[in-house]
């Protein structure tokens, strides 16, 4: 109250009518802007969730206050630095043929982030998930008679279609972090741990897929645990895709507190930009498929969780070798920093070649 007669000023009344304080709104606005700079503009649901978290974090939580979509619209109107816009949906051909500016923008963002935070090469990481059915092998090249009519040879495989997800991160200096293995189930079995190094982590979900909780668990228990003491500079760069489990408020807050900078790739660009997708996951699934076929040839027609864990332990080092990892970062144009390695793969159709003066200019400086 600022008036002598005890009435409340208009400005104070407006502030009290808002669900968040000015400080809370400023914090929310800065988070939205920061996520946009890192390549992951937020949806309304994300903003509502964080606003609700800000309410619950108060010393006296406002249990009866909820954040609606209309509140988000009014919040955007109050902050001219923010605006709504519709996302553009990119498919593979658009990324590859029509929009090289999207790829150039990614490399701009990478370089700006590295320079801004002074990130050392050995503090650059890429994380991703890969999933597959436990008893299904990938295709393999075989030799058959030249008169065979069927163009696709058939092989017997165990056929257990239970889903498994692996979360893993690799480092630009050539090493892989221990994996988090996510399996479908409710109860942990002590025998699982006898076949794996103690650094591996086993998690369970209803369907064998990752989720927001397990993504945050990986960040805390795997990434932070295995990289914090190895950091050369003040900040770590974590390159990842925009999966929902990487974009929660808790994920982002933990990263901020630990000086981890998440940088999100453009949608549908993993095949071009993500090191793990380029040179690591394919060898991993190849080696796994070999093991599955060997078991089938030895009349083992059921692969269970224990078998999977044993197989994984035997192939992890080959799939995520230093050579594969260094090749992956190089092919993604990251280490060494050569965006042209990726741009050369694009089918860019230009009516006339650029002039010699413009061709010498760097697009990412």
From TrEMBL:
<dbReference type="InterPro" id="IPR006600">
    <property type="entry name" value="HTH_CenpB_DNA-bd_dom"/>
</dbReference>
<dbReference type="Pfam" id="PF03221">
    <property type="entry name" value="HTH_Tnp_Tc5"/>
</dbReference>
<dbReference type="InterPro" id="IPR050863">
    <property type="entry name" value="CenT-Element_Derived"/>
</dbReference>
<dbReference type="Pfam" id="PF03184">
    <property type="entry name" value="DDE_1"/>
</dbReference>
<dbReference type="InterPro" id="IPR004875">
    <property type="entry name" value="DDE_SF_endonuclease_dom"/>
</dbReference>
<protein>
    <recommendedName>
        <fullName>HTH CENPB-type domain-containing protein</fullName>
    </recommendedName>
</protein>
<keyword id="KW-0238">DNA-binding</keyword>
<dbReference type="InterPro" id="IPR036397">
    <property type="entry name" value="RNaseH_sf"/>
</dbReference>
<dbReference type="GO" id="GO:0003677">
    <property type="term" value="F:DNA binding"/>
</dbReference>
<feature type="domain" description="HTH CENPB-type">
    <location>
        <begin position="12"/>
        <end position="85"/>
    </location>
</feature>
<dbReference type="GO" id="GO:0005634">
    <property type="term" value="C:nucleus"/>
</dbReference>
């Amino acid at each position: 109250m600022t008036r002598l007669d005890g009435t409340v000023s208009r400005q104070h009344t407006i502030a009290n009518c808002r669900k968040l304080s000015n400080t809370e709104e400023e914090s929310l606005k800065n988070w939205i802007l920061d996520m946009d700079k890192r390549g992951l503009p937020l949806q309304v649901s994300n903003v509502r969730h964080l606003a609700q978290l800000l309410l619950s974090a108060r010393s006296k939580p406002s249990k009866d206050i909820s954040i609606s979509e209309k509140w988000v619209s009014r919040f955007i109107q109050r902050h001219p630095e923010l605006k709504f816009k519709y996302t553009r949906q990119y498919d593979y051909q658009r990324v590859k043929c029509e929009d090289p500016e999207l790829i150039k923008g990614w490399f701009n963002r990478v370089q700006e982030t590295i320079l801004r935070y002074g990130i050392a090469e050995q503090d650059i990481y890429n994380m991703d998930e890969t999933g597959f059915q436990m008893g299904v092998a990938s295709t393999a090249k075989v030799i058959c008679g030249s008169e065979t009519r069927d163009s696709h040879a058939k092989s017997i495989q165990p056929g257990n279609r239970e889903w498994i997800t692996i979360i893993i991160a690799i480092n630009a200096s050539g090493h892989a972090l221990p994996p988090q293995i996510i399996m479908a189930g409710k109860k942990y079995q002590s025998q699982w741990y006898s076949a794996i190094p103690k650094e591996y982590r086993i998690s369970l979900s209803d369907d064998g897929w990752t989720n927001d909780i397990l993504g945050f668990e990986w960040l805390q228990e795997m990434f932070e645990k295995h990289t914090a003491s190895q950091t050369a500079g003040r900040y770590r760069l974590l390159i990842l895709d925009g999966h929902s489990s990487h974009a929660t408020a808790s994920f982002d807050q933990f990263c901020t507190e630990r000086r981890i900078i998440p940088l999100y790739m453009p949608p549908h660009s993993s095949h071009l930009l993500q090191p793990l997708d380029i040179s690591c996951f394919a060898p991993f699934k190849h080696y796994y498929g070999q093991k599955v076929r060997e078991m089938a040839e030895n009349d083992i027609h059921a692969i269970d969780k224990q078998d999977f864990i044993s197989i994984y332990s035997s192939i992890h080092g080959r799939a995520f070798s230093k050579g594969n990892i260094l090749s992956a970062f190089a092919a993604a144009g990251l280490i060494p920093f050569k965006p042209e390695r990726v741009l050369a793969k694009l089918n860019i159709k230009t009516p006339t070649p650029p002039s010699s003066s413009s061709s010498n200019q760097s697009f990412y400086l």
